[in-house]
Amino acid sequence: MNFLTLSDIDKDILWEILKRARVLKELREQGISRLDVLSGKILALIFEKPSTRTRLSFETAILELNGSAIFMGPNEVGLGKREAICDVARTVSRYVHGVVLRTFAHKNLLEFADNATIPVINALTDSFHPCQALADVFTIWERFESLDRVRTCFIGDGNNVLNSLLLASSIFGFQLDFITPSTQRPAKDVLDRASDLSIKYNGRVVFKELDNFKALGNYDVVYTDVWVSMGQEAEAEIKLKDFMGFQVNQDLLSKLGHPLVMHCLPAHRGQEITDEVIDGPYSVVFDQAENRMHVQKALLEYIWRS
Ligand code: CP
Ligand code: NVA
What we know:
The chain is an alpha/beta fold. It folds into 2 domains: 6-128 and 289-305, Rossmann fold (3-Layer(aba) Sandwich); 131-286, 3-Layer(aba) Sandwich (Rossmann fold), CATH 3.40.50.1370. The chain has 11 helices and 9 strands. It has helices at residues 11-29, 53-64, 85-95, 106-115, 130-144, 160-172, 188-202, 236-242, 250-255, 275-278, 285-305; strands at residues 42-47, 68-72, 98-102, 120-122, 151-155, 175-179, 207-209, 221-224, 260-263. Helix 1 (11-29) crosses helix 11 (285-305). It starts with 10 loop residues before the first helix and ends with a helix. Bound molecules: phosphoric acid mono(formamide)ester and norvaline (NVA). Norvaline is lined by residues 124, 129, 159-161, 225-226, 229-230, 264.
């Protein structure tokens, strides 16, 4: 069982994972963080990009469930450079019980998964960040208790985080309006996939692309992400120009009816979001970060049970 995008797991199972994550969070809040459920399991984390939350939340998750983690960073494996991706995948599969992979092109993750004989979890590619989106759904659910009537809006870049949120809204049925610069729209195949999922699970498309800020209404949640993602540093100058006017600031929040503010982090304070907003009373960004750990615990339990 792999978790490469949200649509790899059926909606009812995703709900089971979220409900189990809630139990695990409650147990931890009562001081019960160590559970002997993944004893003997070894998880490899192979990361070709930097990370704070994804690495720490996965390592903490597996350690607290009595398994162990081995981390390999950007200078070690050299996927497709030092060695063919298929050879790394086959080798790793002989040692450990699961892999959490952070890489660049999504096709590299698919190639790795095709050649691995153990579960592979997407820890972020240029195209998708499913662990983030699943924890974000958990964060929205714990705030609103039901997802049906929650109105969310994403303002920013049409890449990995928005792509996974589009799949999340289409699976879980919450409204997701989004606005990106015309040069940074989500790819058509992602929108098509989200439409198909939306119809499958909700009978109608629940997300909507907005072409100007006047079309924004009142929301329960506003979400943003960096304008220059990891690996896009060479395009920074052009991208920063494209995103002029897309900042989530106090003025915008008042126009949107003071929604909760979400951001996957890391944030580039002063670019896509102001200090005042990220540190303000509506911000739930550190709940999102914490919830990565609870949700990934439940995900790991499920992946090895199935
Ligand atoms: N949100 C997230 O994935 O953070 P890191 O890049 O620090 O892992
Ligand atoms: N879009 C960002 C997300 C970081 C969690 C990036 O890819 O760098």
